[in-house]
Design goal:
flat, 4-stranded antiparallel beta sheet, 50% helix, 3-stranded antiparallel beta sheet, alpha+beta
């Protein structure tokens, strides 16, 4: 029956703009409240978090974690590195165990009720509401802090209080969110930890990636052994960089980094895709955006020993820009000579080392 048959009540017209506006209010309110609660919890947990944790903490960042890796390997007695990779970490957190951890430090019932509500929120996928039993709901303001709390208890505190006293030598943890490396003085200690770590993580619903979690001989001794046997020492990946054993010009041991190949290729593909989509934009506007992309890349990857990778990225950006600028001129190919003239008028930012050298040279 339609709305004019006299039997059914008339269907009110829907003001879509009003509905859309009202639908955004709860999300906006949640974000404001989450930010306030996150600041409150940060003040509490900053007293508990250990120095080995660098992710999503005030005054700390990925570059600080990378500096600490260099310092530990070069200044401390490190013979091997355990590279950790947790499978789908943010989606695997067991909510009840997370709440138990939070309740140890937070007793306010209203705060606990809000946190429980936020971590149990569903996800919209193709118009359907999907609700899982685990995870913290990625994309929320409070999620990184909650994920940090979880690994603080699962890994950081466990290593500090239970593992270190049982080891023969030293172990250093450097963690940024769910990305972590453990530097060991003795390989036998590393093998013991690697044996029990999967069981420890399984108690909290976490799984170590079997291929990406690996133990690598790394450090001064590993480099000397490689020199004797004529082989290359092992490498490990951390926060987008591949770490390599190296020597300074004076022959001292140090650590060099280069952009991970997968990260470099992904960045170049994104630039190429952007150039393809925006090839018809004004050249000056394209130059401004590409320089912003180059600047952002240099800001993160511009570590002193990574110039070659920066140069490779710069050349890749320059090549992609030429390719797609040439596609918009029908019958008039853009030669390298013409492109060089264009670059003189609209130059791209050259590779630039942004980070200073850390004090990461072996004293011996």
């Amino acid at each position: 029956m339609d709305e004019t048959d006299g039997l059914s009540p008339p269907i009110p017209k829907v003001d879509r703009a009003k509905v859309q506006f009202e639908a955004t209010l709860p999300a906006l309110e949640d974000k404001i409240v989450q930010k306030a609660v996150a600041e409150l919890l940060t003040a509490i947990y900053e007293q508990d978090f250990l120095n080995c944790s660098y992710g999503f903490r005030p005054g700390r960042g990925a570059q600080d974690a990378l500096d600490e890796v260099d310092r530990v390997i070069c200044r401390e007695s490190t013979s091997c590195v355990l590279e950790l990779d947790i499978t789908s970490y943010f989606d695997s957190i067991v909510r009840e165990q997370l709440m138990e951890m939070i309740e140890r430090r937070v007793s306010d019932a209203s705060i606990l009720r809000l946190i429980r509500k936020w971590i149990n929120i569903g996800v919209i996928d193709d118009g359907r509401l999907l609700v899982s039993e685990t995870g913290t709901g990625q994309g929320q303001i409070i999620s990184p802090l909650l994920a940090n709390v979880y690994l603080h208890f699962v890994l950081d505190q466990w290593i500090e209080c239970e593992v270190k006293p049982r080891l023969r030598g030293q172990v250093f943890v450097i963690r940024y969110a769910d990305d972590a490396v453990l530097c060991f003085q003795y390989r036998e200690d590393a093998e013991k930890v690697l044996q029990v770590l999967p069981k420890r993580f399984a108690r909290f619903g976490l799984t170590l990636h079997p291929d990406k979690t690996r133990l690598v001989d790394f450090g001064r001794q590993a480099l000397e052994s490689a020199d004797r046997t004529g082989t290359k020492p092992g490498t490990f990946d951390f926060l987008g960089f591949t770490h390599q054993c190296a020597r300074t010009r004076r022959g001292k041991f140090t650590v060099h980094v280069k952009t991970m190949k997968k990260r470099l290729n992904r960045s170049l593909k994104r630039v190429a895709d952007w150039c393809r989509v925006h090839r018809h934009d004004p050249v000056k506007q394209q130059q401004a955006v590409l320089n912003a992309k180059l600047r952002g890349h240099y800001q993160y990857y511009g570590r002193p020993s990574n110039y070659r990778s920066l140069r490779q990225f710069y050349r890749g950006v320059r090549h992609s820009w030429k390719k797609w600028l040439g596609r918009r001129t029908r019958g008039r190919p853009l030669t390298w000579e013409k492109y060089a003239q264009l670059l003189q008028r609209h130059p791209l930012l050259p590779p630039r080392i942004v980070r200073p050298w850390a004090s990461a040279v072996s004293p011996t």
